Structures are given as structure tokens and as C-alpha cells.
Amino acid sequence: MDPNNRGPEEYGHDGDGTAPRQRPPRDPLTPDFGQHSSALARTVQLVTGDYLLTVNPVDGSEIEACPPGERPGRPEKLTAAERAETDRAAKPPVPPGQARPSLPLLERQDERERLVRLLARGRSVRLTGPAGSGRTALLDLVAEDCSDLAPDGVVRLSGFHRTTDDLLHDLFYAVYNAPLHRPERDELLQYVRDIGAVVVLDDIEFGGAGLDELLDATPECAFVIGATPDVHAPSADSAIEEVFLGGLDRAGGVDLIERVVGRLLTEEEANWAGDLWFESEGLPLRFVQAGALLLQRDRQRAGTDAVDEFGVFQDALPVDAPFDASSVAGDGDDVPLPSLGEAAAPAPLLASRLSASARATLRFAVALGGEVPHQAHLPALVGDTHADAALGELAACGLVSPVGSRYRLAAGVLTQLEAAGYGDDIDARALTAAQHYAWWAGHPSVTPERVCAEADALLAALGLLVPGTTAPAEGEESVTVQLARTAAPAFAAGLHWSAWERALRSGSEAARLAGEVSEQAYFHHELGILALCGGQFDRARTELETSVGLRGATADKRGGVAGRRALALLADRTGTTPRLGSTAGEEVPDARYEESQSPPGGVPAAFPPLQPSSGDTAATIVVNRAPSGPPPKAHRAGIRGLARRNLVAAGAGALLVAVLGTVVTLGATSNNDANNPSDKVGVNPSASQGADDGSLGADKPKSDNGDTGTATSRPTDPGPDGTYGTSDDPTPPSSSGTSEPSDDPSGTKGTGGGSTSSPTKSPTTKPPSTSPTTKPPTTPPTSSSPTPTPTPTETTPTNPPSTTPSTSDSASAPITSSAPVTSAPAETSSSASTTQSSSSAGTVM
User: Fold this and answer.
1) Which are the contacts of 624, defined by CB distance < 8 A and separation ≥ 6?
2) Sign of torsion over alpha carbons 648, 651, 657, 662
3) How far apart are CA 320 and CA 334, in angstroms?
4) Structural domain spans, the chain
5) What is the pTM of this model?
6) 408: closest CA among 416, 418, 398?
7) Which of 126, 201, 412, 636 is surrounded by the fewest CB atoms within 10 Å?
8) Domain 82-246 = CATH 3.90.480.10
């Protein structure tokens, strides 16, 4: 087999007839970096609430009730060393390249001390400042000052694109060691209530009731919250202190520029910085960018003499060396100062003086809505092996700022770059990023946690590409659908469920636009699983039923099984009956229904026409007349459920015929006494679902004295002559007429005393059949015993007899009717015949 063209069996699923994905040829010069063999799809099993969730990226996640042995115990809190590692991971990575001097926090000492004092008292405080005011840098210093105030230390959280529920889960994972465990709402609130920490929450996007809910759920935590002025303020009842952060004064702005440039400013540059202070309202970010403009101007004035042979990122002069105008090559007036407009919106000018890799990185950031890809992805995206150093250039110029554990374009930079034309090829850049992330997220070496760290960039690419999704060419896959298909399981396994939901909704819309029904069914199934985990049962039912229907259309058996299992669990939780649909080529599980169903062919009619086929032998036939209208629709439960209900209905019809025949026979043979048995026969027998008991589903009567074959008090199957015997012997009793009248409640008396019985009352209950029934004969019998009739030998329907039965055979004459009857006569055993011969002649069998 070709190692570069693997078969589908190596991926854990059957062949679907599509060509496998071509893999790049292996480089013989670098065998150690060759392509590895394909691994099976990664499945992750985690516990969420009362459920055991198995994230299956192939057929769809499977959910079941968590067994007792799989339930995790109460999680333990992280140790001090583990908290330090978690805190380090919450910070953005240090940009590669030359180390930049750290800038001090100017004119923020008063705010810093006030925040620490409030947090030491256990008070929560909200730090409000515009974007670029140095809010994040101040919060970092406050976190260092409060490291030993709370028993659970300091917890750093990012509120960017996060809800209250997301922040509660983030706080839980930052304090507790609970891998692959996502507690439900009540359990989560119980855990976070025991957390005592200083929570540094930056870039929050909500206030009011949402913020009150967050604070009420964590009474032992002290929050310091960073927000912009456009975020909703806390409610009036919340005990949150407000601290406002303004801009720097003019002297502070000039000082900050000098620290960035690394030298003292000339008089011209100082005046230029003063004009910038009026324009920028003293925001520190503007002074950092202005210092980067001056630093680039110095390098331009220095020329190539200031750059050594190792590259453009290492200066020949020390950073702290004093500025000497005489050492600058050329005239200082050759490179003028940037204009005030350029200094107020410096992003295009700064970007024009950066390397090609840095400019390409900015284009990707603009395409992703301001999200800067991680430095590890830049070489693959840009196409330069040293492109990871571009992040250091951007950070030194103040074009990017940290947000949580990653970087975004700084405030105002996105708008400035779009105006400069960096968003002209936004679609092509987003498509390139989507292709790269789709490959990367599905790679076996990439953990779900790493995918979750890049969630914002992946979701930004999805949000941009979904509206323009079209049907791919034959043999190709939609990049948007593929990205959502690979990222969604990773988000679920990494417990980033808000990103999981966004990826599923984007993928569902993209699959619909691309016409990929199987992928659309997968996304609906996952949305149903997510809703089921969140307790949204109605929404879960809608999504799962949609998925099962789509998978039935594509004959996806394994996916349909996963969907029906989830529906069964949902029905068990809600106490409802699952509405299951059958798909082509698969078995449907049995479904129980309490209400009775009529068979497709209708209920068998009573009183069939009987005629002796040879001699005096009568044949009993079974007729099932179908209605003349269109054929009935098959039940949803499939062939199994239909056959079972047909058996039940047929058995009920057979028993109904037997009861009606008993009524007529008893009325014809009973005495005119007060205990007329025809008034005591019920017409509502029970029926079981037995299919192999020879009675077409009717319940078998039990004899009064065991299985000896004696007379019973309940009627059984009719004989060929319309009379009823025991359940073991359908033949009539013997002709011995010497016994006394029986006390059997069947209602007939023997002929031992020479008395004959005549009917005095016709049956009051009519059969449900529309065909009129023949009245019983009114001529009383003249013989002392009925004439036995032989066992029927054939089931061919015959015409009714044309002659009137004689008076001697009136008690055993067949009852004629135009409707069929259901009967299954059995052969007469020798023991049953002997018992009947010794029984009373007046006992109705």
C-alpha cells in the first residue's frame, strides 16, 4: 500500500468512496521530520453534571448517565507551586527578539496604593479607564502587591468575550485541580463559594446584574476589575468601589517618550511632544507610539552604520548611550519630524518602517478582527521561518497590547490600518488562516488546551468566512466546514464550551450553505448534546430530532444510533416518549405504547360462513378483509412495532368473536330460569401479546382442577359446530345422557332427566361487525344429546349450507353469517376425549 495514500480503514471509519487526502512527499534529506502514520480519531471522555460525555469527532458525541464508579470526588485545590504555574500560563508570552527595557508606571502610585488598601480590606473595586490608559499595566503591579493577601493567592482572569458563567468556570479551574470535569450549575456555585482569592479581572464586558451575579457567587473573593467607560456600571446596590484612571500630564508624557527612545529629547522634539499631549489627552499608549516614531527616525538618520552584520534587529549603539547629533550620518534635517496628524494616528507610518514579516502579520491581524496569531503560527502563515520575531517588532512599537494570555491590536490600530489599505485582501488572508488552523487543530500532537488558547482567532476566521460559504467543487471540502469540524471537538474536550457553541453554530450555517447534509447533521447533533448538558431539554430535543432526520436521509447508521441514544436519555430525564424516526437499512428499537392500535387490514369480523367440506365436516376459516381505501401508513416505530400491534389486534378480534359466539350458543341452549348465563357473559376480554401460543394473542383460560381437561367456567375457542369446549379439546361432549345436570356456571343443563332446553331469550350484545347476524334456531332439540361433529380437515372457504338443519341437530348446527371468524382448532387428544365422555352431557364445553 502507498504510505502517502492511506486507506480509509486506518482512520477508524469505513470507506465512503471518496479519494483520500493527498499527503506531501517525504523529504529524503530530513527523514526524522517525515510524516507519521495516521492516528485514530481522538475521543475524550469527561464528566459534566450527572452525565458521562464522550467527545467523538467522527460520529458525534455520545452522552449517558454517569455510572457511580465514574463520578469524580470533590476536587482538591491547587498547591502554591501549581498556582504559580497557572498564573504564569495566564500571562501573554514574552515576544521573541531583542529584550526591550521595561517601562515604569508613571504617575500611578496613588491609584496603586488605594487599590491595594481596598483589596486588603476584602473590598471589590472597579478600575475604569479608556483604552490605552495603562490599565492593564497597573493591574499587573497590583497583583504582585496582593500575592499574599488571600489563602488561594491571586487569580488572573480575562473578561474579553466571556460571560458570567464562563468566568465562574475559569475561576473554578484556576483554583481546583479538576481535569475532565465540568460541574453543573449548583455544584459549581458550591465550589466557587469556598474560594478565597484576589481575582484580577481585566477587559470585562458586562456590568449590572451580570456583575452582581458574579460577586454574589464568590463572597470570599475580592475583585479588582478593569473596564472601559463604555461598559455598563455596577448596580446601585453593589458594594464596589470606583477608581477612575486618567491620562498623564505633559511632563509625564515627555518623560515616557524619552524612556522609549533612550535619550533626552531636543527642544524641537519636546515641543512636538507637547502638541501631542493636547491631541492625545495624555494617554500613555500614544506616547509609547510617539517614542517608537522617534526611534525609527533616529535609525533612518543613522543609516546603515548603525546596523551590524547580524541583522536589522540589533543596534550597533547601546540602548542607554547618549544621543550625539554629530555621530549621525547626514544632515539632521533630512528626516523631518512626523506631523501631528501622523503622531495622533501613527499605525500606518510605524508599519511602513517595519519588516515584511511584521507587515504581513498586521494584515492577518486585520483579517481576524484584531486578533494577532500566536507567534508559533506566524512562520506558517507568513511563509518566513523567522516570522515569529515580528511579534517583538509590533510590541516594541506599541501596535499590539496583551489581552489575557495573547495579544491583540492596540486601541485604534485596527481602524487606522484599515484606512491605510491593510484590509484590501481580507478574504484571502482569512481563508489562508482558516486552512492553517483547520490542519493544526486536527493534528494529533495538538492538545485541546492549545486549541482553546487560540479560540478567538479561530472563531474570528469562522465568523468572516461563513457568510460567503458556497458549495465546493466535486471532490473538495469546504474550508469553513472543515475548520468548524476540527475545532469544535477540541473546544468541547478543552472545556471551553462557549467557544464550542459558537463553532457549532458557525459550522451548521456553513454546512447548510455548502450543501453538506452529513456535516450539518453532525453540528445539529452536537448542539443537541450541548443543550442537554445545559438542561435545555426542549432545545436539545429539537436539535437531536433534526440531526436524526438528516442522518436518516444520508443513511448514516452510526450517527443515527448516537442521536437516538441521546433522545432516549432525554426522554428518560423529561418523562416523555421519544419520537424516533426510522432510517433506511437499520433496525428500530422496540417502542411501547399504552394505547391500542388497529391493524392495517382492519379487525376480523364475527360469524364467518361455515359449510361442510365433505360429508358433515365443517371448515373454519380465517379471513382478514382489507379496506377498499388507500393503504394505511406504516407506524414510525418500524416493522417490528407494526407486527406486534397487528398480533395484539388480531388476538383481540379473535377473542371478541369467541365471546359473541358463546353468547349466541348459550342463548340457544339455556333454560328460561332466573340465572340465565347469557346475561352474565362479558364482552371485554383481555389480550396479551403472545404470538406462539396458538390462540392469536388471546389469553388462555385456566381449568378449575388443573390440566385434567374438565369443564371450565370460561369459554374457549369455538368448535366447528359453533359450540365451545375445553381449551384442550374443541370437540363436543359425548352422547351419554345419564348424568345429572351440571352445576357449571356455563348455564346449560343435562338431558338426563329427559328434559330438553329451549332458548327463551336472545343475546343482547351485538358484534361490532356491520354484517347482520343470523338469529339462533328457535326449534327446540328433540334428541337427548347433540350430534358430535368431526374435526375440520380443511380451511378452504365454502358456501353456506342451503338446507335447514334438522331438529335433532339444532343444538349443534353451525351458525351462519356473511362475516369471517377466527379459529384455530387443535387435534383431540385421547385423554381429553376420555374426560369429556365421563363428563356431564349438559356441560357446555
Assistant:
1) 599, 601, 602, 604, 650, 820
2) negative
3) 24
4) 82-246, 609-624+638-845
5) 0.64
6) 398
7) 636
8) no
